[in-house]
């Protein structure tokens, strides 16, 4: 857990205008800065950044937050990643636990990372300069229909033919960082005179595609050979900066396109991504010569709730799609759409768009196969479904995939559809697939999938609104009040999470920090409407954002608001508890033929309800019918 005091110090040190200004063109407008919102498509600026509040807010779509929240929302970083990124820019070290014995200290790791990023940046600059005079490479790119503008946008370059061209980019060609970054290779045999091993460039005579992380830093390269040669594409090796199983080519460049299009398009190659961006699909990304992994899917779902995977229609494409399907299963929540597009065998996305046009390709995307349909088609493919053995084989193949799915409505629908195909009941298929058994946690469990928005209304809504506006209230609730709040029907998980964050923040609890913390929550959709409501309609929102602890008048106003809101929350807890007692009594009496124990329980609940009713009446809350 990162101390709240450190977060406060960090946000006091960084300039949100500078942070947002890296990604959005801002212009001064009075006390604030204005720009086009990066979170929705607009022509007139409604996005404002306040240097005094250290807060951004869009009056069009409601996006809001601190510098931490902006990096989470725009760059797709996790909470800790965003804090670390800002801390580095401010020259601060994020407080951490003592590292495990034998592990390098955090400061040492950061220093190594920064050194390798600098090496990769210098190499990328060198390759870009080389492209300007490499006519065969330029002609190749022109032959693929690419313009100079799109090549510059993706930072394309050229690695000249020859063994040690990078000597021109680095003063010390034998620097160990060149090896660690994967830019050079050392031969297994030493020099004939017994000296050091011979070193040479990994990439030679190749078009260079820089691979960036979500911060825009170059962390690896993909190189496409010119003319004949193997391998056709060569990637950087695994390094401290780069892991193929968790990075996607073009994600940094595609973030705006993904938000505007409303979906991410996953294709198979670097050139597809670059060509599609030029042809009107700037929302395309690609895996890096490896199968799609749960980490890839997780990164995409930080950007959008809809992902379309595009594959060739041949056997290899089908195998790649099957692996992508398996990677998607743990993330298949009810509010997400994961689809699979299969183009004709002779086409990739680039060639399809050039032959049939953007509208035709967009129509193919719209008709992409949903995950449910693809899963069922895969498990029954090649099976003799008219025979018991074929149906049994289909269920055997479906079992691990069904177990990987979250226990939600989508899984229930897939179960029903599969039961219909194999001629069994839903209960029988669920039993055969052992769906009641706990699923073993996998690497995807580190970041829970977002849950469907659950509307919080009435008394619970007002209580939640007060806790979000004034999180310090959570520290003033008694143990009994907290227990009752966390036991509220339908919203227990939400209240438990909010109260826990209030407690974690302690005396530094603040609306702005609550917004950032809950942005990373799997229940974030349930909070977002309330945050926007507060910023748009609550008369105290201005005080929340402009609060100055040195201003006695503001401190007095806030303390008064906290007293009033705490009283409201306590009253709401009693009212929700009263409603819960009424529901419990109703459920007991609906049973009929009650046992002596059940009658005694009903009597106890009735006495508790009546006492609460008197308390509510004396407090003037009303609404206690029943």
Automatic annotation (TrEMBL):
Cofactor: Zn(2+)
Zinc finger (CHC2-type): 37-61
Designated name of the protein: DNA primase
Name of the gene this protein is made from: dnaG
Gene Ontology CC entries for this record: cytoplasm; DNA-directed RNA polymerase complex; primosome complex
Lineage of source species: Bacteria, Pseudomonadati, Pseudomonadota, Betaproteobacteria, Burkholderiales
Organism: Pandoraea terrae
SMART domains tied to this protein: TOPRIM (SM00493), ZnF_CHCC (SM00400)
Catalytic activity, reaction form: ssDNA + n NTP = ssDNA/pppN(pN)n-1 hybrid + (n-1) diphosphate
Biological-process GO terms, alphabetical: DNA replication, synthesis of primer
PROSITE patterns attached to this UniProt entry: TOPRIM
């Amino acid at each position: 857990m990162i101390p709240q005091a450190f977060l406060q110090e960090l946000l006091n040190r960084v300039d949100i205008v500078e942070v947002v200004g890296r990604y959005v063109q801002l212009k001064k407008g009075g006390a604030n800065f204005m720009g086009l919102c990066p979170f929705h498509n607009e022509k007139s600026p409604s996005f404002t950044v306040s240097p005094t509040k250290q807060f951004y807010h869009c009056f069009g779509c409601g996006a809001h937050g601190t510098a931490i929240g902006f990096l989470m929302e725009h760059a797709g970083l996790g909470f800790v990643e965003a804090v670390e990124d800002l801390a580095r820019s401010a020259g601060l070290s994020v407080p951490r636990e003592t590292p495990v014995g034998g592990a390098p200290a955090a400061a040492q790791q950061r220093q190594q990372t920064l050194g390798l990023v600098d090496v990769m940046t210098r190499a990328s600059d060198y390759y870009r300069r080389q492209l300007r005079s490499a006519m065969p490479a330029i002609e190749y790119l022109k032959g693929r229909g690419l313009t100079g503008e799109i090549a510059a946008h993706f930072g394309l370059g050229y690695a000249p033919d020859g063994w040690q061209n990078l000597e021109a980019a680095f003063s010390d060609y034998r620097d160990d960082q060149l090896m660690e970054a994967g830019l050079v290779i050392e031969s297994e045999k030493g020099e004939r005179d017994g000296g050091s091993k011979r070193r040479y460039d990994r990439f030679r005579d190749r078009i260079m595609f820089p691979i960036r992380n979500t911060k825009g830093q170059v962390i690896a390269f993909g190189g496409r050979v010119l003319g004949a040669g193997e391998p056709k594409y060569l990637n950087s090796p695994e390094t401290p900066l780069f892991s193929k199983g968790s990075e996607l080519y073009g994600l940094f460049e595609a973030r705006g396109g993904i938000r505007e299009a409303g979906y991410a398009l996953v294709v198979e190659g670097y050139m597809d991504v670059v060509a599609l961006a030029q042809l009107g699909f700037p929302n395309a990304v690609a895996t890096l010569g490896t199968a799609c992994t749960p980490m890839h899917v997780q990164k995409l779902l930080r950007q959008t709730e809809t992902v379309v995977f595009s594959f060739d229609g041949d056997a290899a494409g089908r195998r790649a799609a099957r692996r992508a399907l398996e990677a998607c299963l743990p993330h298949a929540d009810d509010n997400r759409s994961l689809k699979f597009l299969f183009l004709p065998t002779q086409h990739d996305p680039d060639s399809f768009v050039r032959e049939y046009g953007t509208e035709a390709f967009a129509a193919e995307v719209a008709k992409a196969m949903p995950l449910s349909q693809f899963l069922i088609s895969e498990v029954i493919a090649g099976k003799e479904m008219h025979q018991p053995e074929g149906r049994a084989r289909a269920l055997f193949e479906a079992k691990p995939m069904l177990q990987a799915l979250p226990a939600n409505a989508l899984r229930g629908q897939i179960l029903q559809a599969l039961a219909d195909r194999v001629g069994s009941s839903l209960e029988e298929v669920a039993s055969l697939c052992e769906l009641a058994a706990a699923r073993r946690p996998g690497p995807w469990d580190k970041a829970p999938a977002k849950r469907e928005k659950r509307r919080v209304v009435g008394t619970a809504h007002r209580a939640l609104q007060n806790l979000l506006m004034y999180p310090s209230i959570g520290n003033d609730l008694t143990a009994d009040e907290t227990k009752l709040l966390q036991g509220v029907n339908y919203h227990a998980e939400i209240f438990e999470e909010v109260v826990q964050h209030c407690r974690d923040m302690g005396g530094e609890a603040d609306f702005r920090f609550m917004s950032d913390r809950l942005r990373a929550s799997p229940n974030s959709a349930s909070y977002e409407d309330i945050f926007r409501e507060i910023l748009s309609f609550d008369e105290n929102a201005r005080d929340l954002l402009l609060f100055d602890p040195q201003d006695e008048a503001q401190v007095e106003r806030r303390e008064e608001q906290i007293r009033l809101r705490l009283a409201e929350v306590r009253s709401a807890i009693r009212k929700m508890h009263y409603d819960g007692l009424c529901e419990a009594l109703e459920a007991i009496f609906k049973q009929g033929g009650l046992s002596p124990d059940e009658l005694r329980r009903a009597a106890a609940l009735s006495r508790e309800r009546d006492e609460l009713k008197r308390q509510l009446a004396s407090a003037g809350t009303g609404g206690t019918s029943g």
